[in-house]
Amino acid sequence: MKGSLLVSFAATASVIATKIVQKAATVHINKHSHGRGRKSVQISKYIFADVVCASYFTFGDDPTPYLLSIDTGSALTFVGVSRDRVFWPDSTFKRYAALPFSESFGDGSSINGNLLVGPISPAKGLRVNSTLGGLLPSESFSKLSPDVDGLFGLSVEASLDYVLTTAGFDAATRKNFHPFMFDAVAQGALPVNTFGLGFTPQIVEQGAQENAVTLGGYDEKVLTSEIMWSPVQGVPGKGFAPAWNVDFQIPAIGLVPGKSGPLPAGLVDSGTVLLNLPGTAFANYVKQLPNGVFDPDVNFVRVLKSEVDKVKSLDISIATPATKSGRSIIKLRGESQFFSDAVATKIGLDVTKYAWSWIGQGSTEDNYGAIFGLFFHQYFYVIYDASSSDGLRVGIATTKYS
């Protein structure tokens, strides 16, 4: 039956790289950035830990597996960043050699290559002809993410169009390229353009999480609350790509309209590690922690372990127009705001007396909004829906980890 297949598959999760990364002075947020957005600014040295959820993909008829990060903040699926695992498209792919492209990311890395169209297989039994960036090896990308071969792009369709427009492709050319989920539904491989992500918290070593990613629907079995649906917001201004932005507010720390930027939107992005707050909201977050300290040497916030039980829950308010009040609240518990000792140790932090928060600083400016990254997805289940007649929307639900 057309569109009858709903696919769930495992993802690996781990802290896969730890190193000190030297930055020249200021790392600016690239206006074409779509994911992997540590988006750090005004720092010269920090501990960088690449925490990813990723899965193995195959391309065409070649059985070689490539590990791609599951990235809802990126528009384009691409592979081939590592010199150790070079990607060569087989004859099942159409190569658009005359259409080179490049893309830069908020962490300072970049990629370049050619656009391809051919079979992409993220799970057994699912094979979709879709757009792929076949890359030249990227030292800047692979240096920061040495175990990852590329990204599985799950951002909104308009975001891919934005990338190609920015790259200079005309409208007639752009019509040839679509994101994976769009093509999967159009070809009858999936029933609806909806997917769900739910990851296990605080994984250190690589290990499979069954049904971490569900394409063509979501995993109802893991939900412990009603789904809170929020419409996707527009972009805050010129130079911002369309993305899975929703109206998230945290009034207790000033993440509200008028104080945190022109839109209260928060980017929901599994390709970013932390929950990154803009300047004022971040400063307020640190202040409300018991003896909280931002350590600029490592770019993380710490508290004494003896104070963790005093940390308050963060009430995150979500715009939910279908509800009577128009908003819904989810609570991020105090103890859940911190890395486990195992993760903190893996990324090089001192755990002898400190607990370290995974809520971090995004832009020092207020007009970039917040980014709800991978660790947010570990405590709440997130559904990305492009199939509703009401337009793009994101659903949030609690799980046993909430």
UniProtKB/TrEMBL annotation:
* Molecular function in Gene Ontology: aspartic-type endopeptidase activity
What's the superkingdom here? Eukaryota
Is Signal included in the keywords of this UniProt record? Answer: yes
Q: Which GO terms describe its biological process?
A: proteolysis
Key words of the record: Signal
Coiled-coil regions, chain positions: none
Q: Where is the signal peptide?
A: 1-17
Peptidase A1 domain ranges (all copies): 53-397
Q: Which CDD domains match?
A: pepsin_like
> What does the similarity note say?
Belongs to the peptidase A1 family.
This protein's name = Peptidase A1 domain-containing protein
